[in-house]
Structures are given as structure tokens and as C-alpha cells.
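SEQUENCE-TO-STRUCTURE ENTRY
===========================
Question of interest: how does this chain fold, as expressed in C-alpha cells?
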Amino acid sequence: MSNWSIEPAEIIDVLEKVNIVAGDLGSALEKLPGILESGVPATNAPPVADAVGELFDREANRIEAMNTRIEASATGIAESTTAYLEGDQEMAETAQRAAHQAVYPNFVPTSGNQVR
């Protein structure tokens, strides 16, 4: 039997750090076109401007895909943690009901005396 546990507080900490780094990356990427474009006139070379434009056209999809993967990963981690915790709660409730049934085998719950 494996022995592992998920610590929600640690997961929240990691996701918060990922969010900060992803935000920093997004800010840097947003500034990049302006920085490069401001340098193009200094070269006084139309081929450089064309190359910079082609670079952004070519890399735009990769940058967007990177952002999508970061978001999807963080969402997947959060959702799987929630599912794990809900499953843990459900198992605890099932064990509690089974223990109660073992002690009181003839107990029949009604709306007013249900085992929680």
C-alpha cells in the first residue's frame, strides 16, 4: 500500500508562486515587442524591421501556447487537489457510517437521527 498525502496549504503556496512567476513572464513578454521595435529605427535597416516582425509572427503562437499550458497546469492541480480532498472526506464519512453500523447493526436512520 502506498503512503502519500496532499497538503493543501503547500499546494496553494506553490500555485501562488507559479502565478507570480507567470505574471512576471507575461509582463516581460508584453514589453518585448515595444523594446525591440524601439531599437529597430536605430539600425536604420528595413531588413531588421522585417526580421523582427517575422519573429513575432512566428513566435506568437508558441508564446500563447506556453501561457495556455501554464494556466491548464495550475487549473489541473487545483481541481485534482479538490477532488482528492472531497474523496478523502467521502472515505471518512463512509468509514464513520461503517463503524456506527458495526456497533449498532440494527440501527435504521430516519430523517431525524441520521449518522453524519
